[in-house]
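Hello forum,

I keep getting stuck at the same step: I have a sequence, I want structure tokens, and every attempt I make locally crashes halfway through. Rather than fight my setup again tonight, could one of you with a working pipeline run this one for me? It's a single chain of 73 residues.
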Amino acid sequence: MAEYEVLVRTIKPCPGEAHDKETFLEIEADDPLDYVLANAPYPILDYVENLNGETIVTTGDRKGNFVKYSFTK
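Reply #2:
Ran it on my machine without issues. Output:
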């Protein structure tokens, strides 16, 4: 298992970033995708591994509610 720092950003369809919520977690997981599948309130919409080594998984209900998970080892 690997250790990750995870930024979880909950985005609501209300205007403005004042309604967004950010939470930092420290977790152990075999795979970021498996962690999101087990813990996310919505289905996965997007999965990206960027050049900085960060894994970003976006989930949502297709009605404007999103939860974005940014994993850093």
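The first helix runs from residue 32 to 39. If your local run keeps crashing, start a new thread with the error log.
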